[in-house]
Each structure stands twice: as structure tokens, then as C-alpha cells.
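DM from R.C. (forwarded with permission)

"hey, sorry to bug you on a friday — could you get me a structure for this? deadline for the figure draft is monday and I only need the backbone to look sensible"
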Amino acid sequence: MTPRARSSFIFASIAFSGLLLSVFWVSKEARRVVRQQQTRRSLASPLGVDMAWIPAGKFTMGANDGQPDERPLHDVKLRGFWMDRYEVTNDQFAKFVEATGYVTTAEKKPEAAQFPGVPEEKLVPGSVVFTPPERVESLNDHMQWWSYLPGANWRHPEGPQSDLKGKGMHPVVHVSWFDSVEYAKWAGKRLPTEAEWEYASRGGLEQNPYPWGREAFPKGLWMMNIWQGQFPKQNTALDGFPTTAPVGSYPPNGYGLLDMAGNVWEWVADWYRPDYYSHSPHANPEGPADSEDPAEPGLPKRVGRGGSFLCSDMYCKGYRPSARQKTSPDTGLSHTGFRCVKDAPAP
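My reply, with the result:
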């Protein structure tokens, strides 16, 4: 082979190799785009809810400066997942009810077997509503501001005379854990585990007191909907909202999630046990097999996360990423809602 022919052959080989690489790259990129489109289609619930990708990773779960059930600190490794950017709204929940005819726990008459000793005339549909008391004896007695109100439910959040006018974009409340699970199933999703919720709430940061960092009010900005003033009698509403706020009223965290602190508590999948952290798995923990609350033995409870518009510096500080709430799964409250997650390929 002459030098000229050899050179031509080498150039032709390089060009052919480049062509093959180009075809391979284009094919690979096309497959990636198709997978991405399929993923986006799979994430499109009947409502077209916007979701954020939470990448796989490790984090330190819990806190040493919180309640005893937030300890011990422990390392957790999680696979990636998708999470609703916003809490489920009244409008979204209404579409679920319209499509399925679902009746929430608060809209059903309580079963006598579950409430022994309660007179029949007291067993009426309703939910637990916050009402500021005129006087407070002690912050240790929450019954001073919480009461079971007949006729209160997700459609009537402050009682039978209230409605959802102007609150379509507010988070749905008065939903039990069971209601949240049924909505998630309908939407093709599920409730997050407690570990997933805390990991997502931290937004990629490690052991910060807030989802956005260490300052409560960076640059003087309100970052969450919580209680201001003398709890539970006076709320000055300096953040702009005396009760719930429309979802997304405050800046997102590092993962693009909104209202991960304040607004409403959010149901998660886990049963509640105060000692679970001492023996929970380090990889993808799904919560204990059952529930035990020493404060109320025999009453099973599920976990809520994120705090609400009723949390304050002088009371619960539930807006911290590590804070935990324990509630009977059949209980609806005027400050409790939820958001969903979905298992699907990364974008």
C-alpha cells in the first residue's frame, strides 16, 4: 500500500469511526429523551401535579437539640424518588372526590365500638378544629384550644358554616391518614416515608435548623407560615397569613420543594415509635412494623412532618426538618394535610 493510499485509508477509518460514534451518541441521546418523556408522562397524575426529583444520597437524620424522639442521630442512605413540589390542595382533592365519590373519615359517623362510653347522640361526623381560647392555664394542656366540632371537614374547615371560597389553592386539611393514602393511590403515587420526607426537606443541606439554612429570616424575609405572637391567644400574622396560606407562598428549598416548613403538618407513611431511630435500618428505612406511644398506650399513631401555621418559637417548633408529630391515623385536624411521592426513573 502506497503512503498516499495508507493515509487515505487512515482518514477514511477515522471518519467512519466518527460516524459510528455520532450514530451511537445520537441513538443513545434519543433513547435518553424517550425515557425522559416516558418518565414525565408517568409522573403526570390525573391532575398534572408538578414533581421534583430527589436524588439518591446519604444524610444524617434526627437532631440533638430537639425532642427525645428525634434522637439518636443516625446516617441514612436513600434511593432517588419524585416528590410533589406542593402540598395537595383543596382543588386537587376535590377532583379526587369528584372522580371517585370518596367520603373522608370526618364526613362519616364515628363507630360506637371505637368510642366506648360515648353517648349515641355525640357520635356525629366532624373533625378537630383549633379555636383560640380566651385564657390559658398552661401550654401543657392542648385541649384548651382543640375541640371536636360536628360538621367540620375538608369542605368546611372552620365548621359547618364555613366553606372553601377563595381557598382552592390552600392545602387540604381535616384529612385522616387513611384519606391521604386513598388519594395517593388514585394519583398513582404513595405517601413518603419519614426518612424520605426529612431528607427531601433538608434540600441537600446537612443538619441545618431550617430547610433553607441556618437563618430563620435570611435578608429579613419570611420563609414559612407559622404563628407569630402570644400562642395560642394572639396571632399577629406578620407573615401575611393567620391560618393556612396558598401553597407555594414562600421560597423553595434546594430541591425545589415548597412549604416544607409551616403551613400544615404532612402525613407520612410510617407508624410512630419514639425509639425507632435506635434500631432503624440505615438503607431506605420504611418505619416500624407497629406503633407505640408511651404517653397513650394502646393508641396506634402515624407520623406527621413539617409543622404548621400553629407552630411557634414558644410552643412546638415543629417547623424544623427533624421534628415529628404523632397522631391517630383516623384523626383529621385543621392544620394537617399531605403531599405524595412516586417511584419512577430519574430525569
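R.C.: lifesaver. Helices lie at 3-43, 90-100, 177-186, 194-201.
me: no worries. The longest helix spans residues 3-43.
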